[in-house]
Structures are given as C-alpha cells and as structure tokens.
Amino acid sequence: MSNPLELNFGFSKYRLTLFALTLLCYIVIIFVNVALILTIILEEKLHKPMYIFLCNLCFNSLYGTAAFHPKFLFDLLSNTHVISYTGCLLQVFFIYSYATTDFSILAVMSYDRYLAICRPLEYHSIMTKQRVAFLVCFSRLVPMICQSVVVIMSSKLILCGFQVEKLYCENWSFIKLSCYSTTLNNIVGFFVIILYCGHALFILCSYFQLVSFALRYPERRRKFLQTCMPHLICLINVIATLLFDVMYARYGSESVPQSLKNFMAIQFLIIPPMLNPIIYGLNLTQVRNSFFRLCRYKKQVEG
Fold first, then answer.
1. Membrane spanning segments where (predicted)?
2. DSSP output for 166-189
C-alpha cells in the first residue's frame, strides 16, 4: 500500500479569509451553472444544438470543480494537507479530463457556429439529432479515454518521494516523484498535448472562417457578434489559464513564492467555470429571456 502524498500549501496566512472566498466562488459556480442547465432543460425553445453543447459545457464545469473545491476547502481548515495515493490518481483523472473536455466542447461549439453562420441552408441537414448526440459523446468520451491511459500509466510508477508541489494532484508533479525513467509517460503526455493543440488549431481555423464570412456579409455580423464572441471569451479564458499552468509546471522559476504559484495554478478551476455561464447568460438574449421568464413563472406559482 502506497504512502499518502503531501500537498504543498503556500497559503500559511489568512486561511479563514481564503476559505470564505473559495466557498463563495464555489457556491457561485454551482448556482450559475445549475441555473443555466435547468433553463436549457426546462425551456423547450432552447432544445437546439448550440444550447445543448452549452449545457454540456456547464455540466463539465460542475464535474471538474467537484474534484478540487471540496478537498481544497477541507485542507484550508486542516493543519495537515495529505491525500491518499488512490485519491491523488482520481484527482488527476477528474481534473485533466475536465480540462481536455472543455477543449473538446469548445471545438464542437465552433463547428456548430461555423455551420450556422457560414452554411445556414445546410445546417439542419448536417446537425441532426444523431450528429448532436455523437458530438456530445465525442467531447466527453475521447478526453476520458485519453486521461484513463495517462492515469493507468502513472499508477504503474514507483515513487521515491511523497511531496506534490501543488494544492492538488496533477500528472507532471506525480511523474517527477518517480524513481525510474518516465520516458514512455512523457511520450504519451506529449501525444495528448498535441491532440488538444489540434483541437485549438481547429477552433482557430473555424473562427478565421467565421470572421472572414462576417466581414463579407454585414447582415451576418450581428449573429456572429452575439453568438461567437462569448465562445471566443471562453476559449481565451481556458487557453490562457491552462497554458500558464502547463508551461509554468515545467519551466517556471523556483524563486516565485509558493502562494503565488498556487494561486495561478487554480485559476482554470475558478475563472472559466464561474465566468462561462455568466458570459453566455448575459450575451445570449434567448437564454437570458428564458431564465427571467422561468423565474417569473416560479414566483407566480409560489404566490
């Protein structure tokens, strides 16, 4: 049986303040994502591919943050910050599959917007119920298969250390604890990174086509600004936070305070899950109107 792993906490002061802020953020994340999911489920007008993909994105935010926030909140109130070997591997799987699923969903959403704006006459013949179901399954199953392979390979490693250099378990920190060569793990890890760089390239190509189309046809510009700008903002959030986390974990300076490194490392588990539903809720008129209509209906029923 492997020894428990110790997480590296740099938040030695103001723990109660951090606990309160983290709890507030987690409550907001749950509220805004659940509100948007229920709005899309209960409002029949929103049973369209774009909103189904959006619902999938919100569900993924709840899935990913549940792997981090409860444990982090418990650790803020504890004097010891440890996690079991099995718990560490599970956290790696859930957090990594959450991050890569976000990329897959954003790629699917960019494809949907490309069809809706650039090929509107073919949209309904291409984006059938079967195609939507396939894309939803693709965006969830492929990341889970990739991360299952990563975690299974990591679970075979023999560790010579038990200090994880983060607030949570992530694969690079886990690999660095290995006693022996991790070349095969690194090859698989780079393959997964290349796969999702391919997703990012596909998204950029889709939006290049959308921008070109919007510039050529001004009547389509309003639809582009209304439905695609939120996608771009979400994408920038995800790429910026994940890129920092991946690059800093490998090439960052050791002179940076641990508390700052920890804060930067958890951004992608706080900012995108909290902002994505707010961005969509505020910018997509149909979602916003449906949400307020459902709220008014609930008040009338209660009254």
1. 16-38, 50-69, 89-111, 132-153, 187-211, 232-251, 263-283
2. SSS--HHHHHHTBSS--HHHHHHH
| Total domains, the chain | 1
* pTM across the whole model: 0.86
- Per-residue model confidence as pLDDT tens digits over 267-300: 888 888 988 888 777 667 777 777 777 777 666 6
Q: Are 274 and 28 in contact (CB under 8 A)?
A: yes
Distance separating alpha carbons of residues 150 and 187, to the nearest angstrom:
10
Q: Which is more confidently placed, 210 or 104?
A: 104
Per-residue pLDDT tens for 94-135?
A: 998 998 998 899 899 889 988 988 888 899 999 999 999 999
Q: Provide φ and ψ at 6, rounded to 5°.
A: -100, 130
Per-residue pLDDT at 7: 73
For residue 275, give the CATH number of its domain: 1.20.1070.10
Reported as a pLDDT band with limits 50, 70 and 90, residue 85 is: confident
Distance CA 90, CA 84 (A): 10
Orientation of helix 69-76 relative to helix 15-42, angle to 10°: 160
SS3 294: helix
* Domain that includes residue 16, residue range: 5-302
Cα–Cα–Cα angle for 110, 113, 119, rounded to 5 degrees:
125
Residue 238 has pLDDT above 90, yes or no: no
Going through the chain in order, the beta strands assigned E by DSSP cover 5-7, 82-83, 163-164
Write phi, then psi, for 26 (nearest 5 degrees): -65, -40
Question: Cβ atoms within 10 A of the Cβ of 84, count?
Answer: 14
Closest CA to 69 of 278, 275, 269, 276: 269
